[in-house]
Amino acid sequence: xxxxxxxxxxGDVQKRDRIYKQPIHGISLSQECEQINRTLCGxxxxxxxxxxxxxxxxxxxxxxxxxxxxxxxxxxxxxxVWSSTWLAIKVGLRDLPPISYVGIRxxxxxxxxxxxxxxxxxxxxxxxxxxxxxxxxxxxxxxxxYALLFWGxxxxxxxxxxxxxxxxxxxxxxxxxxxLPDEPLRWQxxxxxxxxxxxxxxICARLLSFNGWLAxxxxxxxxxGAASAAFSNVLLKSRKMDLSPGMMAAWQMIFGTxxxxxxxxxIDGNPVRFHWTGMxxxxxxxxxxxxxxxTFLLLYWLMPRMSVTKLQTISLITPPGAIALGWALGGExxxxxxxxxAGFVLAGVWMIFRRIDECKSEARLQKPSLAVPRA
Length: 375
Fold this sequence. Notes:
Elements: H1 10-20, E1 23-24, E2 27-28, H2 29-41, H3 57-92, H4 98-117, H5 128-152, H6 158-165, H7 168-179, H8 187-203, H9 213-238, H10 245-268, H11 278-302, H12 308-311, H13 314-330, H14 336-366
Antiparallel strand pairs: 1-2
Helix pairs in contact: 2-3, 3-6, 3-11, 3-13, 4-5, 4-10, 4-11, 5-9, 5-10, 6-9, 6-13, 7-9, 8-13, 8-14, 10-11, 13-14
């Protein structure tokens, strides 16, 4: 449908305005256009093609198609990159101490995010309460979760670390049930998560070799870190914040990294004296730039566009990928149990995605006013 000409009759203009303001999935077209502008242009930067009533509806549809294509691409990128970080962490720990390793990784990532964001968006949160949220979630996600993860991988295999971090969606569903009214705990989601966890357990069955209390404490620490990461994700989504994804991640990193650098300097000593091999430098830069800067930009870009439960199923996809990379590059073996476990993981993820979609479809049928189809 094309907009009426400037000399169009008043009746055509009124008809155009009714269509433009017609509710689609609970919000008007003008509101959705504003959301698309924020997505494509960033906070505070709007294009004119969607901000007035003269925009053709085909422009809106084209923007939605571009947006829809980016969502699965970003989700898949996170799955692939985070499948590789487990091996990079394990290899880097051969030369670098865990606390300083984490701190330096996110210090580099912070610098990269600042460099990307300067001149593109505002750098400071607008409300004082935002600083408190970023401080708390930064400590939970970076200071607690990653410090426990890196320390834990000193005493357990990368496969075991992957399976323990795969508990993030279960913790996330429980926290989301209390903090996010739109995401109540459903038995379908819980069943799918447990099916996937069972598959990951099959994959890692031969890797679960506990070597005393340190291995047990390492595994326990990784589980605590997973709960911290899940609560951080849910808490951040429950607070509407007018801040770009890059700066949101950067503020979290600086709040979480500062205590790690201080503790690392006390425990590990001067970083200049570390055993800096070529492989250690490569792992550090890969984890900082690709495994942190890029992935957290994508993660926080996806947060308002996917449910917490769907988003955190990434943690159920990465263990099979981590095992495959460990076999290909780290000398780990693959067995029939690995392929069987991978099937369970994918089946569980399908259950989480498919059943939620069916529930939404039923809701649309029960509410015709929200069931307006989009071309």
